Predict the structure.
Amino acid sequence: MIEARIAELGSVVVAFSGGVDSSVVAALAHRALGDNALAVTAVSPAVATGELDGARRVAEHIGIAHEIVSTDELARPGYRANGADRCYFCKSELYDVLAELAQRRGYNALLSGANKDDQGDWRPGLRAAAEHGVVHPLQDTTKAEVRELARAFELPSAEKPASPCLASRIPYGTAVDPDTLALIDRAERAVKALGFDVLRVRHHGIMGRLEVDAADLERALADEHRITAAIKAAGYRHAVIDPEPFRSGRLNAALVRPAASR
């Protein structure tokens, strides 16, 4: 039982984004350890506007102690270079910060929300987790099962779509910088304000290319002028709507995935 395994750790810090995976881990940790579980949310220029507020709401619903820390992944050359291993440098920064907090405050372990489905994707961040001894309570639990648990716990994030860091909208090999992250954030907020929830604005220099969920694609194309105008008002010179629907991990599709790097 997952709760029992967490209880054996004695005290934990949960890497808590407020997404469904980390929310379930936080709920399980709170049930198992009560005040000996702490959820910690990292903020940086790569975190989309609104994500912190969402994390706060979920933590309050769970009842778990919740703190905010700042991370500086942009100070890491490997992150800014935006190679295929960018997430390794991002997670290394996160776990360095959380490990220091845990050691200083006397917590025994770090927990993440990585689930069974993550093992089949390109996840260099898992290598950083292994280097820091991070425990993954959901490693044998599928994403569908995680959502079932979230619904059972009545978590506000139960149906929340994935929301990876803003750098995931930038093609590998294109440098990451604060201005580009802010531009992407403004463009995505502008489209969300028009009534679209599941989307990505992919950054291609002076052009922003919008991907929306399959269920919303016909509606988006019918409102193309207003949507592209909103993206351009956010700062892009050109904007288009991708005729193919949004698919998570699209930029990873062409990567070679050596098993040792997963």
Observations:
- The mean pLDDT is 93.
- The chain is about 40% helix and 15% strand.
- Residues 86-105 form the longest helix (20 residues).
